Model the fold of this input.
Amino acid sequence: MGEKNQTLVVEFVFLGFSGIPNSHLYLFLPFLVIYLVTLLGNLMIFILIQVDSSLHTPMYYFLSHLSCLDICISSVTVPKILVNFLSQQQTITYNQCLAQMFFLISFTGTEAAVLAVMAYDRYAAICRPLHYSHLMSSKVCTILAFATWVWGSLDSALHTALSTTLSFCGVNQIHHIFCDVPPLLRIACNDAHVNEMAVRIASYFVAGVPLLFIILSYSLILCSILKIRSTAGKRKAFSTCASHLIVVVLYFGNALVNYNHPSAGYSLETASLVSTVYCIITPMLNPLIYSLRNKEVKGALKKVVGS
Done:
């Protein structure tokens, strides 16, 4: 961590909602409600999977990881935003900013990998049903889960290490609602070419590889589903993928807009809104998608509530 950085800038000021008059009065309650719904919804999914033996399958094992990640992503950003809403100025210290950035990148990168593994699980279940127990054994699931967390952590460690080399020369106003690499690069006063290249390469690799893997998996799944003769069989096969597909579209669609939007003609308020959807709204929607569209999850919930 650079001594120069800490001498010149000891805290940053978020400008994400500065264009909205009295934003702290109007936004605190909605953000608090969203955060509570996110926590309760994902915690419900996680607990149901742990207590209901019928959900002790690879698909729900990785869904529990997804729920855990959604709680983590939301908890990295929203509590600090809520605290700032109650204060006069929306600030964060230099060290807190780096920590927030590290965990946010780590969790979002891990989520991309988890979604890819879930697509592989659906491929194995639909295209290789006779080998499914071998392809998705408990040992394989544990290794894949560990690999997804390592995937996100390595990417995050790289970006955070590179960010410690940035100098800010007294400029401490971040045009965002939380700490992330692109907003910091915009206010850095030293040469950040290496950092910019790392962001570009990582966005294509860390998010692109899982997305390509998901597309390949679902292409093979679609080919297998089309070979099923009965309409009921096709519908059943597709229903097992529907919730996951919706979550994939939400996650990667929002990530694409958040990290690849044009710099020109893109207002601060619009950028803040996109970031809010990506890191705050999406984690809230995921448990709703899985609980409302999934018969097994709804059945497990009825059993727990009924007991």
